Structure formats: C-alpha cells, structure tokens
Amino acid sequence: MNNISETIAALATPLSASGIGIIRVSGDKSIELVDKIYRGKKHLTDYDANTINYGHIVDFNGNVIDEVLVSVFKAPHSYTGEDSVEVNCHGGIYVLRKVLSLIFDTGIRSAEPGEFSKRAFLNGRMDLSEAESVMDLIESGSEASYRNSIRQLSGFLSKKVKKIRSEILHEAAFVEAALDDPEHYDLEGFDSKLTVSLTRWTTEIKKLISSYRQGSLIKDGINTVISGRPNVGKSSLLNFLSGHEKAIVTDIPGTTRDMIEDRVVLGDFVLNLVDTAGIRKTSDMVESIGVKKAIKAQSDAELNLYLVDSSDNLSDEDIKFLSDFDRSSTIVLLNKSDLVSNVDSDDICRYFKGHVVEFSTITGKGLDDLKNAVSDLFFDGNLDNDKFYITSEQNYNYLNDALKSLELVRSSIANGLSEDFFTSDLYDAYKSLGFILGEEVEDDLVNKVFSDFCMGK
Amino acid sequence: MSQICENYDVVVVGAGHAGCEAALASARMGLSTIIFTVSMDSVAFMPCNPHIGGSSKGHLVREIDALGGEMAKNIDKTFIQSKMLNSSKGPAVHSLRCQADKLAYSIEMRKVLQSTPNLVLRQAEVCDLIIDNGKINGVKTISGATYFAKAVVLCTGTYLNARCLYGSVIEYTGPSGLKAATHLSDSLLANNVKLLRFKTGTPCRIDRRSIDFSKMTEQFGDPVITPFSFTSDKRAIQKPQVSCYLTYTNEHTHDIIRAHLDESPIYAGVIEGTGPRYCPSLEDKVVKFSNKKRHQLFIEPEGLMTNEMYVSGASSSMPESVQYEFYHTIAGLEHCNIVRNAYAIEYDCLASHQLKNSLEFKAISGLFSGGQFNGSSGYEEAAAQGLVAGINAARFVQKKKPILLSRSDGYIGVLIDDLVTKELTEPYRMMTSRAEYRLLLRQDNADIRLSKYGYEAGLISEDRFEKVEDKIEETREEISRVDKVFIGDTKTTQDFLKAYHSVQVNSGIGLSELIRRPELSYDKTAPLDSDRPSLDASVREQVNIQIKYSGYIERENKQVLHFKKLEDKLIPDNLDYDKVPSLRIEARQKLKEARPVSIGQASRILGVSPSDISVLLIYIESGKYLKD
Q1: Which positions 157-176 of A are in contact with B (Cβ < 8 Å)?
Q2: Of A248, A330, B115, B129, which is the most exposed, with the fewest CB atoms less than 10 Å away?
Q3: Closest to A236 measured CA to CA, from A339, A138, A151
Q4: What is the pTM of this model?
C-alpha cells in the first residue's frame, strides 16, 4: 500500500471536454510543493487558509502554462483533513494534463483511486452518508482499474514486465540469501553485475514509459496547430481535413482561449486541431500568424502543421520560422503543389531538416505522405495495432515508481553503500511492477530465496 | 486417594529456550511461577545446531537482552567461539553468532532458574489443561497432580506427539531420545485448538578423533569478541576460542543419496509433516539443486566436555547404513565414526493465527504460548516468544495491559506479527528480509529500541534503563553538534583526506558530509574535529551510523510513520465481517478467520487487497458497526 504521509495529486473533476478542471493536491507538503510552480501576488505558503487566489502555473523554466485560481486549505479544514491545494485550470485538456504532470514533477505522487476519500476517513472528515457513497465509488474504481489491468495484460506489456520482475526478484533474493548465509553466498563483484542489469531494466522500463505518450496520443489525439502566412491555405487544409474524411468527431465547447475546436481523423490518428477559430475568421488572418502565435503554437501543441505556398516564394518570415522549428513536432506542407511550383522540398530543406510533404488541398495529393510523416514523428514509423501502448495512467505511474526505485539502487551503488541498503529499493521496484500485473507480493522474496538458493544448516 | 494440588500465579509447560525465558520473566516480575520439564537434565537443551545467533537471529538475541531476558547473558557465559557476520556490510545486517558449549549452556541456564526467587522447577509431563468457560485455570500432570494457576504458558517445543525417523526406523520420542509428550495434544484438540504437524531434522554428530581436519578449512572466531548482552563487560569475556571447519559434499556423495532416495522416509512418503525450506535435508538439497556439484558443510564443536562434532548442512533421514556410506565420501570424514545418527522429527504445533499479538490464545483467556509450539523454528525465535509470552502472562495476572511489540519496534515484533497473521505452512524462521524496517532495527541499537519495554515490565533495572536513556541523549547531542561543525579546506584537511584516499575538498565542508563518505567515519574524522567530546564507544557507534546513513534512516522513519497510522486504526473486537458490504468473498473469509486487531495487520493478510482495506476502513470509520 502506498505511503499515507506522502503528498498526492489527481484530477478532482473528470477529464471532460469542457476544458475546465480542478486538480486536487493533499498532504503535508502540498502547499510548499505546488508553490514551486505557482506565480501570484504572494507565495502560496503565505496565503491564509481557505482562500482562493489568482495566479499562473509556470514550468521550471518560468514559462506560463495556464492562468489559474488556486485554493489553499490547511489541516484539518479540508476535504481530506490534511493541508490541501486545489488548482482550477481553464486551459483545456492538454493544458490540464501538462499542469498535472508539472505537479508530479515537484515530487508529488499520483493518488490511487479513492485515496483522497481514504485519507478523509483516516482523518475523520466524513460522515455516514458520504461514507457509503464513496465506498461504492472506490469499489467501482478498483473494479474498473482491475478490468483495465487485465486488459492491459495482453501479450507485450505483461511479458516485458514479468521478465524484468523475475530478474529483479532473483537478484534481490540473491542478496538476501547472501546476507542470510554469508558463509555460503558471496556478494563479491555483485555491484558491477547488478549495474549492468540495472541499465537493461531501466532502458526497458523507459521504453514502456515512453509508449505511454504514444498510448495517450492514440487515445486522446494529437494536439495540432495549423500555421503559416496569410493565404497559404490554412482554412482550405482545415476544411479538407474535416471534410475529406467526413469525420468531425466532436465539437468541443469551451472558453474563448486556446481550445481544441475540431477533432479530425487522419488515418490511424486523431488530430485535435487547436486555435482553428482564428483561421476561420479571415479578417484575423494577419494576427493569427504573428510571430508570437507561431512560437506559442510550437510550445503548446504536439504537432505543428506549417503551410508554405509552393506557388509563391519563401518570405523572410517563412525562413525565420523554418529555421526555428523543432523538427520533432513540425511537418511542413508545401501546399498548392498542384499549381506551378516555385518552392520545392529542397528549398525548404536548406532551413528545415524535418518532414516536408508536397500537398494539395484540391486534389488530395500528399495525404498518405502526411499520414506517414505523422506516424514517423510520433510512432517511429510503425503504428502497429498489435503493439502494446501503455494507456493507463495508473500503469504509467507504477512504471515511473519502479524506475525511481531502480535509480535509487543505482545511486546507492554509486555512493559505495553495501547491498543491504538497496535491496529494499530493488524489492520496491518489484512491487511497483507487480501492481501492473495485479499481483500480491507478500512472501515472494522469501519464497524466491528458498527456491533459487540452497540455504540452511 | 489424595492427590497433589498446588496453586501458582503462572504455570510454564516446558523448559526449553522459550519456557526458560517465560518462567524467568514471570518469576522476576514477582509472580509465583512453576516450570515443568520432561527432564531436569535437558533444561535449555540445544537438540540441533550448537550455536546461538547468526543472521537475524543475532538481532533477536540482542532484543531479548534489551527486554531483560536471559539468552544473551547465558551465551556470553558459555560460548566457545564468537563471530560477527556480515561485518563488511551495512550495520543493519551485522549479526553476531556464537558457538555454544551446549552442556555448559544447559547447566548455566538451570543454575539461573534454580537461583531465581519465586520459581519452582518440576520434572513432570503435563497432560491436561484445566479450562472452564474459555478461561484457563491450571494444568494436570500425568500423575494426576493438579496445579491451579491464573495463567499458563505452553512452551512444548517439538515434544508434542513427537516421533523421530531415519530410514525405516521410527522412534516415538522427542529430540535426542528424550521422552515425548503424548497427552497434551488431545487436551488441546478437546478445547477446539487447531494443531498442525511440522517436521524438521538434524544432522549426525561425529567423533572428533575420527575426523581428518587437514582436508578441511579451519574457521576461526573474531580476534576481538563482541558480547551478546549489553550488560556483559567486553574485556571480561575475551577468551581462547575453538575452531570450526569447512568441507564439502561431492558428486559421489550425491550419487549415493540419489541411489537411496526411496529409503528416505520423506521421499517414501512416510513423513507427513511439512519441513522447512531453509533447513533442507541433504536429500532435499541434492534433489532440488541437482545442478550444484557440491554443498558446503561446517563441522562445529558441540562443546568442551564432549568430542562430538556437529555436521552443519547435512541433516538427513536416510537409513543408518546410507548415512555411514555418504558421510564417508566427504573430504576429511572418510573414516569418521558417527556418535549420533541424523534424523527427522515430526511434532504437533499450533496453528498460530489462534493467538493474539500478546501470545495469548484468542479463544482461551489466560492461556499463552511461545516457541516452536507456535510453529517457529530456532532457539532464538523460541526464546523471544517465550519472553513475550512470559511477560504478558505475568501482566495478565497483574491485570495490566500486555506489552505489544510492533513490526517497527523490533525483529520480535515482526516474528510475532508474522506468526499470528500468516498461515504457516512450514516452521517459521526469522530472516532479515522479513523486517521491513531493517535499517532501523539493528542489533547495535536493540537497547535503544526496547529497553523501555523491559523497564515497563520490570525486567530492566532503573539503573540500567537510565544508562540507556543517557546513551540516547548523548547520541542526540553529539549528532546535533557534529551537524554544525564545518571543516575548512586547510592543508591539514587535505592531508587527512589524502591519507584516506578521499577526494580533496574545494572549499569548506560539513563534518557530517565527510563522515558520510564511504572511506571515512565518525571515529576516523576525530583529528579534524577539535571540540569533540570524549564519548563511550557505544555512543560513538550510534553517532557514526546515524550520521552516515541518515538519508536511509530518515526514509524508513517516514515509512514507519505511515505504518503506525494504519497500525493505530484498530478494528473493533466485535466487528461482524458478514455485515461489511462490498468485501470480496476471499477477503471476508480470511478476515473472519484471522480477526486482525488493526487495519495495518489486516492489510498483511494474504488474500486481503488494498480495496478490501479501503472498504473496511470506511465501514469502521463510518461507525456503522455500532448501529447494526
């Protein structure tokens, strides 16, 4: 079971399309940790209890992520009875997730299903009627996560995790056997052997973790900005993408700020088109492609589709943008390639080394190339329906926990500490991976010691 | 015909390692106590290995001492070799182990019992428990004598319905030919106590004169002996030590065992008891680890008053002739004479989830039990439980609350909690990996952790307790002083670091930082620290460990805080699990059987999931059980 003295966070509202969401943070360190990413009139730590405060969430480089209202609660006067912070975000699903992930980066861990309520009970903050309804919620929550974990057990992940786990357990058991019977098993040279295994395990786990990004891109769509100078055909592209597949999935209502406004299907992917309003309103055209906007698009979106009119010459502005673009998130579309071409991909390549697709919103030329380019950027070129992608945030967190434990092992070894200091971290990694498989671990270590090593008098 | 009829506060059944501690604790706490043994010549008898301590067991002995028990003092009087295991590892797994002079150990313990006021020793087999309305009132012996008591502690070891086996030979005795106790099991069963049948074994003893030690590697004790007891004087216990010897089995040995497997009662299916995996017979090792070409064996002296040598690692239940054959294949044992055969032993023991953490039976008020009867294995595990059972039996009579040790207090807490929470399928042995907080539960700080309980029970004197308190205070003060000491990057500093092959400092550095470097320590940095007070070695040790490993210690301290929070959430005695909605069926059954005292304990029951725990927590916190 997770540590109850740790500070936890989770979305307190469902991740809905409304774009408004509350992130709840609870625990002794909640106020000081959230303060690390909050900019307002005062530090969060300086506000009175039970106040709502305006400010911004910023990343560790000081970039503003969202405009927020932050409520500060002090123990015992909060939902959980602990010091708590609630962050009201307005910036849409993508921004909400980004704020949450920043919160996790401060050292706060993700709450388990029902954990806020559990803490509320532990701290005597709930009455009978609340208790009963929450009990049902927790139960259904754990059922759902159980079903989910069973589903995710299909092939790939399960095999990977099982393999890493069994290797970790074997090494932990070896240490235990040697500590228990030092005259029989020798740990000489074990450190360097383990370091090799650690590298292998962490590489594997990191791969799984990165597949979470891919998994969520599949599940939730890729946040995409269409940019380019006036009259390059942004609105045509928008209409083409929306119309071509006849697949505007939803119209997501929201505030007037950066919002996902169209979801379009592009082959295997869903693109969440951000800031399409500006494109539709032709009068705002000039404004919408300002430097500021393009750069913001770069930092906010996961995919930037930059349009260049191939029948026109490259402008200075184009060249400046092209040189600055991050090629891991940008695809340049040479639009109007059905017309006379003044600019070709070689010209673009002088400034931009990423994907360039010759496109025509009239003929549909280049659509497959665009799909391939997206696949290449986000899925290393092979979006394989049989391949496993981590989509569960729970599993993602368990993998991160396991990774953290293994890194602790590595740092203990680096600091010259003996094996007894890090076997518990090894075993913690084993346990975290076990949660993914839904396995109880109670006596596994002791059992493994006896099954793999010949012990005793 | 008139019968003997006597009255005591506490009756202890059995005078092994558990019984001795139980009886001594009870008598020392001022209660009239009687202890029964099947043989006055086998008090604190060591029927198997001739050593005390070792990995994790050494921790138990230290903890027994901190609580005011006798085992550490007795082994300090009677050891013939001493060794600190894992001394190259972290302090949490340093473990002291002493070879005992078995006979001396037994005699010295008997002397202690015989010189303890309030304690009566009696050789007799207890055959019946007097239980009325779920309350113990005393015991009856086989002669018909009645001993009324307010509390009874069962420490029957491996004697209940015991039988010893090797080959096709079955002898209905306890260990080493001692009389088995054949009636008490019936009395327990009649009182609805659930019993298990466990098995263990012991290797043969060999005549020292028939061993060729030149073919073995001699194993010496430590040059400087560390005492077990916190009260023993280190200088006074230094003495010449006796050696052990290392040899190995070989393929030839294994071939013989394989060829005769069907003659082993275990493999022939004669033995019904469950044997321990950590103490496998040589047959088991050969079968389960068939890829191992050799297994190591330690030849250990049984004492100074006998020439018997114990062959550690070679327990067996093979027929006598096969034992001769395979022992003779081992280097140095080619011509050995066997003095006592190896054998397996089966015995009745308690399904220990029937006990509370105080070691009192849940269903029988005033009845306590400790030791191998509770399904454990090992002298140290037995003594630890005996001590706790004795203390709590006495406190039961005194009408005081039991002293309960938690998993974060010590290995004894882990041991007892595991015994009463887990469903044992084999004799339970202590291991450091069973202790979640082992960086905190070190053998060096057992006194700091547990003296308060010993003092509360009345087994630790005011004087001794104050000394521990002083040690704690001095350690605390010195750590806070060291934390403020800053070492400049002077030539002295750089020279000092150079001498220890330690990285030079660019600017000044905190003394604590230096102490944390693997190649340095608190003691080593003394030349840099001009204001250092003169402190006792035991304080310096604590200061060093607590500074050096502070990060790890803090982390475990945090985990303990969390653990305690759940441990403090008590489950009401009268909770009806059938009325708790949403519990899974398996969890419901397990909880009904185990009846854990706290949410923390419930979470450790196999088959109870975190969501079951949440459901339970909420049900309890909502106070719903009060209304039903």
Answers
A1: 176
A2: B115
A3: A339
A4: 0.79
